[in-house]
Amino acid sequence: MTIQGYAALEAKAPLEAFAYEENGLGAYDADIEISHCGVCHSDLHLLDGDWGRLSQYPLIAGHEIIGTIKAVGSAADANLVGKRVGVGWQRGSCLTCEWCLSGQEELCSDHVGTCVGNYGGFAERVILDSRFAHVIPDGLASDNAAPLLCAGITVFSPLMRYANSRSRVGVIGIGGLGHLALQYANKMGCHVTAFSSSDAKKDEAMALGAHHYINGSDADAMKKARRSCDLIIATAPANLDWGQYVRALRPNGTLCFVGIPNKPISVYAGQLQDNLQVVGSSIGGRYAMQQMLEFSARHDIVAWTEQLPMDSVNTALDRLRDNDVRYRFVLEK
Ligand code: NAP
Ligand code: ZN
Predict the structure, then answer these.
(1) Which of 31, 44, 36 has the alpha carbon at shortest distance from 3?
(2) Rounded to two decimals, what is the model's pTM?
């Protein structure tokens, strides 16, 4: 079977039409006809070669996929045929190790990335393990649910792990991940602070669920924010003054990195003495994915999206690079 998509032939090259061959379905595979695919900043990192060997060219990125299952392999659940499903950053794991068995497939050492060494979602279809295709609840429209598959789960996971309804939660970077984090934290009952790099997103951040908005480049405002948050989720792929965000933590607080700046993060250990922790987090396992989708449907959490046809993928990537999107591009068939 020939599959058409859009690939970069080398690092930083514009994407161009590209076709590849698939040799039919493996036992657990699903053949998914893609209707929508979000454009995540991780796609940019991959296409630019920021993460070294993770990028293999020709590279078809795209890992916020929604589509319809057209066929499944001999061992897969035949009831999946015709279902609307989503696929995120992960398309496979061993399913037998301690991490997989405890519902933390994202930690499996045999983790298979949707567009790492595989062709991803900027394409007309994709064939992958049906056990990593998540049925989308009826209440969620595809065009603004696609970003939940990566951006959504990535911020939902640390909120589930570190926050409760009494928590004061900060979110650094109001982009694809950040604008969903504001919504989840608000609906979980938290007090929510948006930390953005300018004043430009204030009204929208408040509409998304922030109770408080701070321009992180305003030193006075950051001083006032000291000891104000139990959990801060850092989504900005930028080298910020992390010390000022550690100072914004309350005792026992957690600064959680989900965004991936290109330089090591530097924090003075003396600042961590109030039982503070600096941690990382990535996506979430299959059970977390199901919880996230159910929570999103119940609380009307959707990405604010701008839709473009799939052949405008280069426009989406260029504007994402310029922080010129409110708040996620979703490519449509
Ligand atoms: P995005 O849509 O581009 O949003 C990032 C936001 O960070 C921007 O909207 C901007 O918000 C802020 N920002 C960007 N550049 C900045 C700069 N130079 N200085 C200060 N702030 C800046 O990106 P995304 O799709 O949300 O992804 C964010 C990061 O998370 C990326 O590094 C991505 O690779 C990573 N990621 C990680 C995981 C994981 O599993 N850990 C999953 C998905 C994505 P303001 O305008 O509000 O400042
Ligand atoms: Zn992503």
Answers:
(1) 31
(2) 0.97
